[in-house]
């Protein structure tokens, strides 16, 4: 453990720190701040988000630890990495700009029916994108008639056994796992809330969402979008300082999810094409895990067997 601390956060419970960190991370990943550009000044970010400069400094430290930005004394932080999506789809090759997750999710929500099947470690990146689409729905920019989200996350019992995140000092493992659980719980609760509000306020005719858990340690993340597109990316192990809510930094082995390279595959109408084959393969994989391997599916099967 490094033992470095950033002092007491002036925003209660670190919520402001996490809010700013999540938003800046997604902006960078989606090209809102392109590679090589400078972020706004610390004072400007503090004013935009309504937080203290100390909170902004902590956020920039975390983003630097994760490899998104580089900072030098007396200069603004510069973006050195974003979310890379490799795609052979025609619309991707026609674009002048790199493909990113935000526009793909936005395009999916422009249909009457939106289906998302997600296998992930924390749901961190999806949360911000769903909120962005909810704002578009509220503004009457888009009007999907049905939204259906199915998400598979690691079982709580599996999180205890994950090989990541782990501290260089084993005494730090418990706090790192608590941080991981907190991230997952915060973002799944946020997803439930935003989707539930769309349903309760009748902004979308049909809103369905379900979260299940499986006894697998994720080595990759998977997005199946409208049954026609798949995003697939591995979780890459790295050594890096991890910042806790208290501001303390711990040297750890962790994985990169947001920011890891994703590959984009499209069902293109040709059954034997590489894109169609990959989409078929991964949609079948997700369906099998959802219906056969998740804790909830197994509990249902046991209950049905006892009832019979």
From TrEMBL:
The keyword Transcription applies. Keywords: DNA-binding, Transcription, Transcription regulation. It comes from the Bacteria. PROSITE patterns: HTH_GNTR (PS50949). Residues 14-83 form the HTH gntR-type domain. Transmembrane segments: none annotated. CDD domains: WHTH_GntR. InterPro entries: Bact_HTH_transcr_reg, Tscrpt_reg_HTH_GntR, WH-like_DNA-bd_sf, WH_DNA-bd_sf. The keyword Disulfide bond does not apply. One of its GO terms (biological process) is negative regulation of DNA-templated transcription. One of its GO terms (molecular function) is DNA binding. PANTHER family: MANNOSYL-D-GLYCERATE TRANSPORT/METABOLISM SYSTEM REPRESSOR MNGR-RELATED, MANNOSYL-D-GLYCERATE TRANSPORT_METABOLISM SYSTEM REPRESSOR MNGR-RELATED. This is Winged helix-turn-helix transcriptional regulator. It comes from Streptomyces argyrophylli.
């Amino acid at each position: 453990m490094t033992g470095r601390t950033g002092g007491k956060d002036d925003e209660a419970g670190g919520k402001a720190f996490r809010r700013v960190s999540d938003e800046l991370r997604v902006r960078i990943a989606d090209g809102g701040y392109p590679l090589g550009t400078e972020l706004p000044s610390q004072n400007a970010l503090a004013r935009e988000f309504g937080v203290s400069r100390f909170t902004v400094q902590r956020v920039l430290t975390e983003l630097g630890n994760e490899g998104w930005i580089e900072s030098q004394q007396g200069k603004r932080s510069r973006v050195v990495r974003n979310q890379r999506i490799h795609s052979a789809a025609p619309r991707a090759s026609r674009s002048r700009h790199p493909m990113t997750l935000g526009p793909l999710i936005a395009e999916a929500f422009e249909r009457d029916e939106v289906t998302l099947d997600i296998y992930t470690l924390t749901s961190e990146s999806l949360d911000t994108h769903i909120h962005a689409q909810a704002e578009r729905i509220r503004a009457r920019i888009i009007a999907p008639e049905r939204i259906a989200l199915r998400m598979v996350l690691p079982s709580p019992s599996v999180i205890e056994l994950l090989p990541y995140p782990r501290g260089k000092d084993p005494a730090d493992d418990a706090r790192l796992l608590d941080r991981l659980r907190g991230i997952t719980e915060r973002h799944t609760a946020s997803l439930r809330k935003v989707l539930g509000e769309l349903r309760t306020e009748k902004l979308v005719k049909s809103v369905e969402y379900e979260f299940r858990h499986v006894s697998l340690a994720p080595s990759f993340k998977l997005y199946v979008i409208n049954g026609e597109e798949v995003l697939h990316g591995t979780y890459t192990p790295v050594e890096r300082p991890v910042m806790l809510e208290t501001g303390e930094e711990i040297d750890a082995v962790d994985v990169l999810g947001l920011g890891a390279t994703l590959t984009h595959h499209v069902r293109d109408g040709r059954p034997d094409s590489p894109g169609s084959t990959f989409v078929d393969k991964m949609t079948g994989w997700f369906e099998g895990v959802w219906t056969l391997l998740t804790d909830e599916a197994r509990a249902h099967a046991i209950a049905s067997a006892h009832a019979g």
